[in-house]
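During the second year of the project, the team shifted from modelling isolated chains to modelling whole assemblies. The rationale, set out in the original proposal, was that interfaces cannot be judged from single-chain predictions alone. As a representative example for this report, we include one of the complexes processed in the last quarter. Its constituent sequences, exactly as entered into the pipeline, are reproduced here:
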Amino acid sequence: MIDKETVEYVANLARIELKKEEANMLSGQLGDILGFIDKLKEVNVDKVLPASHAITVSNVLRGDSPKGPLSAHSVLSNAPLKREKFFLVPKIIE
Amino acid sequence: MNKNLYSLTAHELAVGLNKKEIKSEDIYSALDGRIKESDPKVNAYLRPSKGLSSGGDRITSGIPVAIKDNICTKGFHTQCCSKILEGFIPPYDATVIKRIKESGHSCLELKTNMDEFAFGSSTENSSQGPTHNPWDLNCVPGGSSGGSAAAVASDEAIWALGSDTGGSIRQPASFCGVVGLKPTYGRVSRFGLIAFASSLDQIGPITKDVYDNALLLNIISGYDPNDSTSINLPVPDYTRALGKDVKGLKVGVPKEYFIEGLDPEVKAAVEEAINTLRKMGVEFKEVSLRHTEYAVPVYYIIATAEASSNLARFDGVQYGFRSKDANLIDMYKKTRGEGFGEEAKRRIILGTFALSHGYYDAYYLRALKVRTLIKEDFDILFKELDCILTPTSPTAAFKIGEKVKDPLKMYLSDIYTISANLAGIPGISLPCGLTKNGLPIGLQILAPHFQEEKIFSLAYAYEQNTDWHKLKPKLT
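Output from the structure prediction step:
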């Protein structure tokens, strides 16, 4: 079980606004899921290295050479709000 | 070529195209008619009312491929079946799309239905409504590539692309009676695939038979400098693996996959498949994948953690849906609260929790360590084995609505497919039977990294000795 306050705290970290009933429902469901995941505590992982990838590739480098970028027009073509060559967002600094 | 063109395979159509008996336009118009007739029942495509013939500058060439809604197609809607990407039209093509075009083929501009951001195993979590299984319209087609699998099964597509993070190609292929392959991690470029879990995601073909699957893998495989995890290894002609003698191949059958929870009808069909292959000289051996029971919990930590990070980009600023608020942070929160569906929110929050201060070591780091053990189980077995054979899913397709209220139960339907993503190995699902209710059963074949050829040899040998892949659903 994870309590509603924890759900709301994590939802804030994830920048998601939850309705009251969503937070209640998630608290129960996440509790069940984490209870199931606790199964992993049975496994002895001393001396086991973590695998962040299935096939490890390291130091993938490329030349520092410019390629043709997308045009500003096409980059902005999906913007919900834009002006000239900029994305518009609510005011950040008063 | 007097048969309905839509019911043919790509390799059959290629013969007609080469002999100039048919044109690409003929295939398009056959599919257009078929989609208009069947898709109102199946709902495999998004915006099907648009039809295939509406675009003025449509390029028709070769044999069109149906594309899952999470793969970027320049100039055509791509929204991962999510409200938050509503209206998004990519300004570029994914590498796989580029490769399809370069090979002389083309892509359907209608995208296929999926669980939102590929979060699901039933294609019920879609902002566009659920897809119905062509074999029983009251059942799910599996997921998350349920639209692609159902389109191929119902002859609304000749062949298709899906993506597989924990079984999202293989499980719907199994539920819909078609052939679906998840290639080795790094075999196919992920550039332009809208990311779910970057260390697990792979794009792969969903087709009517094994031959088509090899053909489509030939087209989409290969190194791509735009994907730093794609591997620079030569791409063999996978069709050359078809028809190879399978006598003496060593295949393991993991005992952990044949325990409680496996439907007796599925078990019987897989055992029958083993007998068929044994008669061809394939050598079977019972083996153990000791950490199998931990695959689902490991997956739901790693996949959600990666998803929570990948989906941070959907904030209402650069693309898609934006909610209104005067304050930036509240705008983000409202946009994401209203734009993401229920399962997406559940996974982002679970992943954020697993990565948050105080829980990182207990959940995320531990999951990565158990992932190492799951990988090692396979490494050890593949020292002596060519392939591993299992059921694709513990059951045939379940009813629409049956598992939506119980996310944990839904997660467990991927129990046999998830390990391959964690280990990065390739796996195929191909049809191996029908239940007494007439629902398809899938056989999974796994192989070591970059040994897709072994999978194709074995799958083709099985297919050529059975008729399951020739059965067509009734769409009732």
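Strands of chain B lie at 65-68, 107-112, 159-164, 179-182, 202-207, 250-254, 283-287, 387-391, 427-434, 440-446. DSSP finds 14 helices and ten strands in chain B.
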